[in-house]
């Protein structure tokens, strides 16, 4: 197990590079850091940004990273050796400012489509934007009926699922951002949502500590996974799809057997809330970020 220390405030989000060679973390201290997830060493210098980091997303099949900030900014970093260099600094924010006629609201969530061609952005003012990822063109800019707190594209990229503050999972068209339905069954607000690798399941984490596992086929009621005692902030399927990892404000990370819907393990290394979790691309290790300013990387086996 590795404990990554360096951030001076809550670590709010993390993401593995698609090749597994780097782990990016974003914090309320306003910095973005890159780590070697095998050795725990820092890659390059921390990037000091204009506000705390709300969300991170690596583009599939590349080392490009998009970062969403609390001041509404979106920044893109490209890998050059062991360094990440900011690309088109300020260009995207200016484009979105023109579109909305005001300064963009804080970013709440980011998600790339599986082919890496689109980037979805959810903001605190209920605005949902779908961008053409390669050239940063705006494909759609709509208002969600409720505030979206988490995003995930379906396996084919046609549907964009949004975890909503009212507990309903909102479904949007993956290009136009128009509503295409909703999944009901939760009793508390949803904070995160993620699709299984085969696209058959959708998992969501809720403010009452419940984890809901939805069968994508219409008409199926969700299975409730109980164990967390407080808000579930993050969820991630293993690359094989057989395990679900969740992180909660109760300070624990839990692993669930997807086939049996049973709990495999409950782990507690952090002294405060677990804010984000992720599996490495090979599924052998995983990482969890916390409000205690640290990140833990461990061998899942």
Describe this protein with a few key phrases:
Methylamine Dehydrogenase, Chain H, four-stranded antiparallel beta sheet, single chain, about 300 residues, globular, mainly beta
Topology:
Blueprint: E1 2-4, E2 11-16, E3 23-27, E4 31-35, E5 47-48, E6 53-58, E7 65-69, E8 74-80, E9 83-87, H1 91-100, E10 107-112, E11 118-123, E12 127-132, E13 137-143, E14 148-153, E15 159-164, E16 169-173, E17 179-183, E18 190-195, E19 201-206, E20 211-215, E21 223-225, E22 232-237, E23 243-248, E24 253-257, E25 262-267, E26 274-279, E27 285-290, E28 295-299
Description:
- This protein has 301 residues and is mainly β.
- It has a single domain (2-299), classed as YVTN repeat-like/Quinoprotein amine dehydrogenase (Methylamine Dehydrogenase, Chain H).
- 3% of the residues lie in helices and 50% in strands.
- The protein has one helix at residues 91-100, and strands at 2-4, 11-16, 23-27, 31-35, 47-48, 53-58, 65-69, 74-80, 83-87, 107-112, 118-123, 127-132, 137-143, 148-153, 159-164, 169-173, 179-183, 190-195, 201-206, 211-215, 223-225, 232-237, 243-248, 253-257, 262-267, 274-279, 285-290, 295-299.
- The chain is globular.
